[in-house]
Amino acid sequence: MSKTGAARHAPEEVDAYLAALPDDDRAGLERVRAIVKETAPGCTERVSYGIPIFRLGKDLVGMSGRQNHCALHTMSPGLMNRMADELGGVEVSGATIHFTRENPLSRELVEKVVRERMGEIGLT
User: Fold this and answer.
1) What is the pTM of this model?
2) What is the distance between the alpha carbons of residues 25 and 4, in angstroms, rounded to a whole number?
């Protein structure tokens, strides 16, 4: 029997989500996906609330593609406040970091967000 709800691991849902995006957006989000999975080994992934979500016991981060940008959803306004000095030049809306093909997120930033979120949810 498959898991339901937040605990379910459904990478095929994320694959389908990404397949529906334009090539540039898909490539940018595939890169973010790979970094998240490398930084948080063992995380599960699924589509929830219409976006891919990564989970390690609790929801960790999400990502999405929109018409004019892609986004890394940190799920933590407090984290964004604490990282404000490090986010210069990056568009932030609430707990979401926006990026484009022309201005992708650095590996270091994605890794830091994931590690900080892991700390927030009690994994480090």
Assistant:
1) 0.92
2) 28
